[in-house]
Amino acid sequence: MFYSSAAREVKPPARKPYLLLFPFVPGRRRRRARREPSPSSGCSKQGRMSRRWSRTIYVGNLPGDIREREVEDLFYKYGRIVEIDLKVPPRPPGFAFVEFEDPRDAEDAIHGRDGYNFDGNRLRVGAMFSL
What we know:
Blueprint: H1 17-21, H2 48-55, E1 56-62, H3 68-75, E2 81-87, E3 94-100, H4 103-113, E4 117-118, E5 121-122, E6 124-127
Antiparallel strand pairs: 1-3, 1-6, 2-3, 4-5
Protein name: RRM domain-containing protein
GO molecular function, one term: mRNA binding
Main location: nucleus
């Protein structure tokens, strides 16, 4: 085979004309840098609020006819439960927030029950984080 000695010219990709005029894409907002919470607010790393959020888990994809007792039966083996906030909307699936006494218990419950098949529904269990 015969190859030409002349190099092929490589063109840069065409730029969109509005990118040359504006440093940002119209219709999109720039994301602001995240500020650290002030010590006086309730969301500091040592504050009560952040400790509560680290102990609370989200349980989703619950059947529509579930009761609070059944949610407690699912999670009691992972540690002492402080509160269960069960939300059952008019149309399933329902969801719940389960607060444990210890954050390590909440972590164990997430690993043990995420993807668990409960009454034909695959549970979604995840951690709650403060903003």
